[in-house]
Amino acid sequence: MRSSRASVSRRLALLLAAAGIFAFGPLAEAQPETPATEAVPGSDQGETIELAQLLSAFAAMPGLEASFVEEKHLGMLARPLTSSGTLYFTQPGLLHRRVDSPRPSTVVITPDTLRFTDESGTEEIDLRSRADVRLFVESLVWILAGDQAALDATYKSEFSADSERWTLVLTPRDSPLADVIATLTISGTGLNVEEIRVDETIGDATVTRISQANPHRTFDDAERAELFGDGSL
User: Fold this and answer.
1) pLDDT tens digits for 39-72?
2) Terminus-to-terminus CA distance in the chain, angstroms?
3) Which of 75, 128, 190, 228 supports an S-S bond with 43, CB 3.0-4.6 Å?
4) How far apart (Å, rounded) are the C-alpha atoms in residues 158 and 48?
5) What backbone torsions phi and psi does residue 225 show, to the nearest 5 degrees?
6) Per the omega criterion (within 30 degrees of 0), is the bond before 26 cis?
7) Contact (CB, 8 A) for 217 and 65
8) Is the sign of the CA dihedral 173, 177, 181, 185 positive or negative?
9) Is the pTM of this model over 0.90?
10) What does the alpha-carbon distance between residue 140 and residue 146 come to, in Å, rounded to a whole number?
11) CATH T-level fold of 2-33+42-229
């Protein structure tokens, strides 16, 4: 039972970590209409950011390419497992997560499927037949869309902020998410997200940090087909 549950847990943790990165780049840059000499509302050290500002910034992002470093803290290991790679995101909810180190792998998410590929082969999940995983993926889209009402229906949220930093803690309300995910914690400064942490009910945790990001990334038809169509680079 633990093996089966742990497998599902790792899959959901991977989804959360990956989606957290693509959803939360340096979002203060996602407002090109703001002159460089004018401060983005809520990003000054003397002004406290509000949750509505964050969700609005998330919704304004057209696409993203970002580098990431991820640490998986497992109870059975003394040191975390570290991986790094690149994420690509575009509408409508298309994600390609490529791990370059230590072992190559990719995860591709579309509105209907989740595809994982590594040296052992490819596994694909039809989200239309997996209500548990589909709910999880849809909840990430709600964050991108700035849909606070939908988020509140699925998660209990706690938002705290001061003049420099803010933290958003999301706790699943019901099964199946509550069976696997204890909390999702997103923290940052101003309109920049700096860390996404997933704490699982079995005690493991995944921490993802952004090293660089382009929140204005757009993709032509060839890139969309290559990155999101067949899952390979």
Assistant:
1) 334 444 456 778 888 888 777 777 888 888 999 9
2) 35
3) 190
4) 15
5) -65, -40
6) no
7) yes
8) negative
9) no
10) 10
11) outer membrane lipoprotein receptor (LolB), chain A (2.50.20)
